[in-house]
Amino acid sequence: xxxxxxxxxxxxxxxxxxxxxxxxxxxxxxxxxxxxxxxxxxxxxxxxxxxxxxxxxxxxxxxxxxxxxxxxxxxxxxxxxxxxxxxxxxxxxxxxxxxxxxxxxxxxxxxxxxxxxxxxxxxxxxxxxxxxxxxxxxxxxxxxxxxxxxxxxxxxxxxxxxxxxxxxxxxxxxxxxxxxxxxxxxxxxxxxxxxxxxxx
Length: 200
Known about the structure:
alpha/beta
């Protein structure tokens, strides 16, 4: 195994359509020798968020039922406002979005500092847009501390190993339900490991 692939950080984002606002993010950290060593989930209320291209009905039928209650609460927003009095937004949902990204960014930084590589299922447009906003937030706060150079994706590995990335692949019980970002990231991590084993 290539040493650079020993530790992988796989994350998945749920958003209001392909180009809409993110409302949930999940991740799994997989160590080649120890297996899954970390996982997590952050989410916010979707009230006030507009679905791109009128996709809210599909989201309400397919994604919202699979997600736990939002992890970010009104108390978190009040605490954020008190700690950041100069940072103001017009809409309450913008505060929730900012806190969502800030919490995720801290987790990502932690694992990047440990040498993890970033992986996604198919990074464009949802995950790359999400990371772009995370970076913009850090620039606003003037505490930008890390620039990562590339994002790896499962889709490319599947092409390289002769698999069809457009197909649905069987899930383990720990990878259900579909559209839960942590469960999706866990399935992606397993498939990434399988493809890497074939290539390296």
